[in-house]
């Protein structure tokens, strides 16, 4: 398969403890023109992430020293890697696991055993989407324009007054992405972000944890007033169609 010209210099980090699968992925990606970094455990993966922020991470969930989802959290919560696309490739692929990865910020989930051509196609599609986006600040989620996980953590660290944090979840986004692809799901994320932004209480900030989960940080609000403050946001989000 001939590599796409726009992909020739992409750096892909493969985090996989099975040497045969890691070798296969390395060969396939190299043949497509990608530069490949390899890690067989979470600790080495994080060292490689610190040394060189890749353009994409292919991540297994079962690693010898840690659950791969902890690596995903680390990627999303660190400013230098918060916007790096992550494709999870795992044999643990029940719906709850997929949903959990999606919420933590995975861009795609591929079940093992996988078809090599299909996996390469998904990786190329994720890279192309990432390259078409306008460059975003490191603390900004590129899909919604809100704070990303690293940005949310930084906002909480800098908060000087008591604050309330509300969670807004889009039910059905995972099913939509599995049926129609992440590009369609991302359209709903952007549409939801627009209506959330329009309904935010004055002085509040919004963030996106991943998938269809958003948070609203309300400085000075208390728990008693939280439901009333959130009602306009929830009403606006209910108007976004996810089917």
Give a quick set of tags describing it.
single chain; 243 residues; alpha/beta; five-stranded parallel beta sheet; three-stranded antiparallel beta sheet; 9 helices; 8 strands
Which structural class matches the secondary elements?
Answer: alpha/beta
Helix count?
Answer: 9
Largest sheet: 5 strands, parallel
Count of individual beta strands: 8
Report on the structure:
The protein has helices at 19-31, 42-51, 68-77, 95-104, 116-132, 149-158, 173-180, 182-199, 223-238; strands spanning 11-15, 35-39, 56-59, 86-90, 108-111, 163-169, 205-210, 213-219. It is α/β, with parallel strands linked by helices. It has a 5-stranded parallel beta sheet, with helices on both faces. It has a 3-stranded antiparallel beta sheet with strand order 6-8-7, with helices on both faces. β3 (56-59), α3 (68-77) and β4 (86-90) form a beta-alpha-beta unit. The model is unreliable at 1-8 (pLDDT under 50).
């Amino acid at each position: 398969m001939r590599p796409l010209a726009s992909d020739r210099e992409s750096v892909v980090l493969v985090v996989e403890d099975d040497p045969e699968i890691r070798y296969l992925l390395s060969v396939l990606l190299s043949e497509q023109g990608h530069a490949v970094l390899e890690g067989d455990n979470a600790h080495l993966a994080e060292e490689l992430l610190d040394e060189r922020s890749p353009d994409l991470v292919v991540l297994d969930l079962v690693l010898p020293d840690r659950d791969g989802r902890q690596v995903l959290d680390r990627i999303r919560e660190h400013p230098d890697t918060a916007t790096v696309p992550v494709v999870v490739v795992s044999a643990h692929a029940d719906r709850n696991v997929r949903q959990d990865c999606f919420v933590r910020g995975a861009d795609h989930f591929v079940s093992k055993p996988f078809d090599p051509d299909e996996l390469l196609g998904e990786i190329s599609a994720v890279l192309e989407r990432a390259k078409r986006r306008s460059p975003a600040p490191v603390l900004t989620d590129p899909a919604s324009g809100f704070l990303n996980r690293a940005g949310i953590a930084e906002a909480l660290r800098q908060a000087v007054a008591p604050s309330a944090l509300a969670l807004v979840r889009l039910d059905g986004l995972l099913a939509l992405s599995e049926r129609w692809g992440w590009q369609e799901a991302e359209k709903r994320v952007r549409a939801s972000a627009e209506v959330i932004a329009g309904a935010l209480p004055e002085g509040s900030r919004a963030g996106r944890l991943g998938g269809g989960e958003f948070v609203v940080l309300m400085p000075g609000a208390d728990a008693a007033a939280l439901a009333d403050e959130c009602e306009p946001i929830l009403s606006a989000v209910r108007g976004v169609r996810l089917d």
